Amino acid sequence: MLAPTIGHYVLARDDGQPLDFVPGQFIQIHFDYADGTPARRSYSLATIHDHAMGPGEAVEIAVSHVPGGAATALFEALEIGSHVNASGPYGRFCLLPADRNARYLLIGTGTGVTPYRAMLPVLANLIAERGIEVVLLAGARTPGELLYADDFRGFADAHPQFRYVPCLSRELPAAGSPQAHEDVRHGYVQQQLPEFAPDPARDIAYLCGNPDMVDASFEALKALGFGAAQIRREKYISTNPTPRR
Q1: What is the phi/psi pair of residue 178, to 5°?
Q2: Contact 40, 241 (CB under 8 A)
Q3: Angle in degrees, CA 47, 53, 58, rounded to 5
Q4: How far is CA 160 from the centre of its chain?
Q5: What separation in angstroms does the CA of 141 have from each of 110, 146, 224?
Q6: What residues does each domain of the chain span?
């Protein structure tokens, strides 16, 4: 468990073949409701890899456990070696080779930070090749609900042009704890945007996670002059089988 209600799952194709994907894409898990009605749920790939996926290499996803949820029951029943039906990868929530921006603003809440974890090797290359800057605003209620915090903090320590900014709406880390850091902020991610002076002349923004956050951030960026090509978004809606863009 990455957090009290979020599990980390590692999957591999049972035919031993690689699952080729672009960081930012998702897969769909297929299952049936109790009455036999087909259902599916979408999960962004959280896998960090900086090379072509090899045969049988695993991929990773983060799954929110919702009390009474059909997909939650499926995942909670899985044991090592269990099988699930899946398709994909899908999606266009990816870093684009044609981008010539000076900075990425990556904004996510909850499991919405998982595609940014997969993007870390790509970002490392872009930092080295183009000298870009990156700000990751990661929203959660408490320090214990921040996903992949060690990965992001470690990446920030190794790459000064990458800032990891946890935004905690309810509880800040205890003073002196490993999670306490000068870049931790109190409040929602969209409330922190003005501090980083979003600039449509140099920034491209990615929004992923809670629909209310995505909408609020989108409107704030539009008001600052950002056009549609400079804002890339994906909403996570538990009752919708596919992330909405």
Answers
A1: -60, -25
A2: yes
A3: 50
A4: 21
A5: 9, 8, 27
A6: 6-90, 103-235
CA–CA separation, 156 vs 136, rounded Å? 10
Per-residue pLDDT tens digits of the chain, which is 245 residues long: 999 999 999 999 988 888 889 999 999 999 999 899 999 999 999 998 766 666 668 899 999 999 988 999 999 999 999 999 999 999 999 999 999 999 999 999 999 999 999 999 999 999 999 999 999 999 999 999 999 999 999 999 999 999 999 999 987 766 666 666 778 899 999 999 999 999 999 999 999 999 999 999 999 999 999 999 999 999 876 544 445 43
Contacts of residue 191, defined as CB under 8 A and 6 or more positions apart, other chains included, come to 167
With a CB cutoff of 8 Å and minimum separation 6, the contacts of 154 are none
- 6-90: CATH topology: Elongation Factor Tu (Ef-tu); domain 3 (2.40.30)
CA 40 – CA 230 distance, rounded (Å): 30
Q: Is the dihedral of CA 225, 113, 163, 174 positive or negative?
A: positive
**CATH class of the structural domain 103-235:** alpha beta
* Token pair belonging to 21: 């994907």
